[in-house]
Amino acid sequence: MRRFLLMLLGSILLFGGSVQAAERDFSVAIDTAISEQLQPSNTAYYDLLLAPGTTKELSFILTNHTDDDLRIAVNPSNATTSSSGRITYQPLTENRAPTIQMTNYLQIAKTVVIPADGQKTVTETLTMPNTADIGLMAGGVSFTAVKAKQDINDKIQLAHALSYTIAVHARAQAQLPKVALSLSQPTAISLPNRTGIAFQINNKVGRFVNDLSGTASLTDIATNKPIMTATFKQISLAPNTSWPLTVSRKNKQLPPGKYRLAVHVKTSGLTQSWNQPVTVRMAHQEQQVRGFSVWVVGIGLISIGAIAAISYWVISKSQPNG
């Protein structure tokens, strides 16, 4: 029990509470005096209003709280939507890049070194696209302190890493475009012991979509019989990104046929519905089993034919010539 309480206290300090500067290897702050910041009181991240084609230098002040020099890896990324419907600034491989990528418009050093008990200012150059109607570009810059050691093979191994990500948002117009969503064409996919219906909800404009909720229902077109309904809520989408979703019935394969997927969504200022047809063909596993069965039957027939031919040859050899 004592061990559990200690682990719980450690989790609160790491994720839920403030950590004193002395307890961290380093910290990151933004330049709060920048005039293009939409809300001067915002000191946590950059949220900028920049004219089209403008180039702006952004400063990140890194402070080293240790007695040793710290090598910092710097990695810019785009704001994306995870498969769980959350906004992330980490370059996860499962996430599709937004149609307008902030990483194409910024330049920053890959690595820097903060002197022991000192500070280092890292400058990022951000160039706005020449068009004014792109809405919000959203990305971030991650700073990772890396301590490395050499093993017996003189290979560098990661011994410790602490990372901070500072969001960077930029727009050319104060007024963002209205929420606009679309639904991709649904497809039937084969999953273990069940059939899934996969589709995407697309955020078509440069703005965040928060607190999206809705339902996805599948109906058999031939019988007009409801097959299944899935609900989702508190979904967030980054600007110009898509959220992938797959609905299915547990341990249930859908019979081949034509179905209708009805998706209804609601968020602040928008209620929208789509109806899309989807065709379910023979399940992949069933095709494999049927193909395997045909293969087995074919081998069986060949074997029977071979046995019959050998038996005939043996019998004919045992008969006297006459």
TrEMBL record:
Domain of life (superkingdom): Bacteria
Segments forming domain WxL Interacting Protein host binding: 155-285
A Pfam short name: WxLIP_PGBD
Signal peptide location: 1-21
Sequence intervals crossing the membrane: 292-315
Residues annotated as domain WxL Interacting Protein peptidoglycan binding: 34-144
Keyword annotations: Membrane, Signal, Transmembrane, Transmembrane helix
Protein name, UniProt field: Uncharacterized protein
Species, as recorded: Weissella cibaria
